[in-house]
Amino acid sequence: MDKMLSVWKTAPKEGLELKDTAIPKIKDDEVLVKVKATSICGTDIHIYKWDEWAQNRIGKNIPYIFGHEVAGEVVEAGKNVRGVHVGDHVSAETHISCGYCYQCKTGNEHICQNVKILGVDTQGTFAEYLALPYRNAWVNDKKIPHWVATAQEPLGNAVHTVFDGEIVGKTVTIFGMGPIGVCAAGLCKIAGAAKIIAIDPVPSRLKFAKEFGADVLIDNSTDSNVQKQIMDATDGLGADVFLEFAGSPAAMKHGLGTLKAGGRASILGIFPKPFEVDVTNDIVFRGIHIGGINGRKMFDTWYKAKALLPKIGLERIVTHRFKLSEIEKGFDVLKRREGMKVVLEP
Ligand SMILES: [Zn+2]
Ligand SMILES: [Zn+2]
What we know:
Helices cover 29% and strands 27% of the residues. By secondary structure, it is of the alpha/beta class.
């Protein structure tokens, strides 16, 4: 009875393994979450494929249960738990911070020096149960279905990036129309951006961007005159804000190259390796404000996401729902770049 289905990374190669394992025992400062929905993130695809990033980042951690986007119900609470109760519906902030380093003590827990990432450094959410530090449990409105609430993590990434500077009345370029980029387009729309320009090489993703409010769609699969198209769409002025979710050096070049002098670049994409940027001419002389975005501010971003979730219609990014035991199907869909968010329900 105390066994659960769980999805493990057991071997240093592509793939995963379904296993029956013991339900985790919680510590005094943890809650036990009965997982009702968990979704597949880009990070999980790296881990599944066992690419260079995964080998370097988590080579030492296997065997372990992966997955980090989750929604479920608290079924047990340790004796030191405060503010979260049995029966609550929760999601997880995936950055488990130390609470004592310089960043944690100065309001920057999301870039904690000793951060552990759920499902990367710790046992993850692709399972029927999850032991979660209570400080990382975010209590959801019970009206939100679990299969929608699990997608709050990418929404949070988008909220953090979009609202890292002014957005009302601004012209925005968004590179990379995965779930985070699409959410960003939706948020820019709600917040009153003047014009939203979405750039991606996959036509079906551009269609999503349009549904979420993008005004101009640019297919950069052939890499032909992206900059000209952006300049044309902005009456030759360029954009006020450039949001990077693609993790692509070409996107950086085109994004910076079409930003107005004095504009803002907020970058969340992960780039496979270092590359050259003309800092003097493209950033310094043009007075560009450039910022890296990591995770979600804890928990300022979550409060914002909570208010924006019903307005953005987050359920629209969930394109596929499978049982947890069918997880391979979910990875197949994403490998073919067919879906937006794939949700697994144990
Ligand atoms: Zn994620
Ligand atoms: Zn810390």
